[in-house]
Amino acid sequence: MNDLRIKDLSAHVGEEVTLLGWVYNKRSSGKIKFLILRDGTGYLQCVFFKGNLDEATFNEAGAVGQESTVEVTGAVKKEPRAPGGYELDAKGLKVTHATEDYPITPKEHGPDFLLDKRHLWVRSSRQVAILKVRHRIVKAIRDFFDERDFSLFDPPILTPAACEGTSTLFETPYFDLGNAYLTQSGQLYAEAGALALGKVYTFGPTFRAEKSKTRRHLTEFWMVEPEMAFADLNDDMDLAEEFLEYVVQTVLKDCAEELRTLERDTAKLKNVERPLPRISYDEAVEILKKKGSDFTWGDDFGGADETLISEEFDKPVMVHRYPAAIKAFYMKRDPENEKLALAVDVLAPEGYGEIIGGSQREDDYDTLLGRIKEHKLPVEAFEWYLDLRRYGSAPHSGFGLGLERTVSWICGLDHVRETIPFPRMIYRNTP
Ligand code: NSS
């Protein structure tokens, strides 16, 4: 197998090599034809000089279609002006699969066209850069928790009941047992994990049958959810800020080239260092009022409110202690004010909105049972969850970070649809 890749060429300067890949782009100027080869690890300018080649090869380099599969042979040269810093003085070209009329050309295409052709769109340099950043973020997330004694604890995807409210559930028939639901969050299971293993995290796909058609919403998205026993809301916020710092700084260090491709202004990301500002919901409402908003205390923040609040800060801001009425049933109330939940949302800067939602969980059996009833949830389906408060209950806290919103923010994108290989939205479940 020829496993020489474009990213490894710096060790082969002066050598003759053969590379396998696809024609990304090409241009010609008289006696020279330039072919940009891509192989998933980088881009390489292959230079075909008429004087150095037989006529058939020279002509083929001019005729080969975009996205044809090729083998190119030639000598590696250092060339600071070429993309990637190296160039191939091409001697041979073998077209192993000729492509004609590739639908995505360097001209502008509309988003619907590109989404219809998503299986091909993922080959574009911008999409490759985004998906590499996504990959690096996923690894940073796992490294962060693995290095801090959190165990990966995989929750089920088919579940018997709602976690984040009943209005956004995808339902599916489940044999003789009635209906099952696609999970909205692994949290309730992570709580069982935390009381078993101390510190756990879940990381997988989650589903929301939300009718929201915004640049922040997908119906299928990935969430990472750490959960810790013997931890309160402050411990939860400490973890969240250390985590965000780690993820952002790792991407800055390891994905400089991708961020350049995406023309991301990295100055704003460099600010993501501890401590992150912590403000209460009340203080956030004050900010909105000061800015002339007619927001009423007790409402949940919309996207525009989140942007107004986060504009006050040059890094992510943690907003804690929300009105309990707008939060999930499982959140513990603030002992200093029963109207408030010990919740925290982290709002990303630059208008990216909420990327983390978390809380301290209600750990008292009677109180939790009361909440389940108040929220008109089926007590029977939550018997196992109540067991966690019957046997060895302990204060515990955690949060969920949405992967796609995080990728969108770090890459500086306009819409989450580009952050996942095959986005699922209200109006799209193909390809
Ligand atoms: O609904 S959350 O705010 N919180 C939970 O699901 C808790 N059970 C997490 C926990 O405490 N373990 O969702 C968490 C994050 C939220 O901040 C977003 O970043 C992301 O999940 N999220 C989404 N991303 C993309 N699309 C949609 N529809 C979406 N909904 C939430």
Fold blueprint:
Elements: E1 16-29, E2 32-38, E3 43-49, H1 55-63, E4 69-78, E5 86-97, H2 111-116, H3 118-121, H4 125-146, E6 151-152, E7 158-159, E8 171-173, E9 179-182, H5 187-197, E10 199-207, E11 220-229, H6 233-254, H7 256-261, H8 267-270, E12 278-280, H9 281-290, H10 303-310, E13 317-323, E14 333-334, E15 337-348, E16 353-360, H11 365-374, H12 383-390, E17 396-402, H13 403-411
Parallel strand pairs: 3-5, 6-10, 12-13
Antiparallel strand pairs: 1-2, 1-4, 2-3, 4-5, 7-9, 8-9, 10-11, 11-17, 13-15, 14-15, 15-16, 16-17
Helix pairs in contact: 4-6, 4-13
Could you explain the architecture of this structure?
With 431 residues, this protein is an alpha+beta fold. The protein has 2 domains: 92 residues, OB fold (Dihydrolipoamide Acetyltransferase, E2P), CATH 2.40.50.140; 302 residues, Bira Bifunctional Protein, Domain 2 (BirA Bifunctional Protein, domain 2). The protein is built from 13 helices and 17 strands. Strands 6, 10, 11, 12, 13, 14, 15, 16 and 17 form a 9-stranded mixed beta sheet that branches. The chain binds 5'-O-[N-(L-asparaginyl)sulfamoyl]adenosine. 5'-O-[N-(L-asparaginyl)sulfamoyl]adenosine binds next to strand 11, strand 16, strand 17 and helix 13.
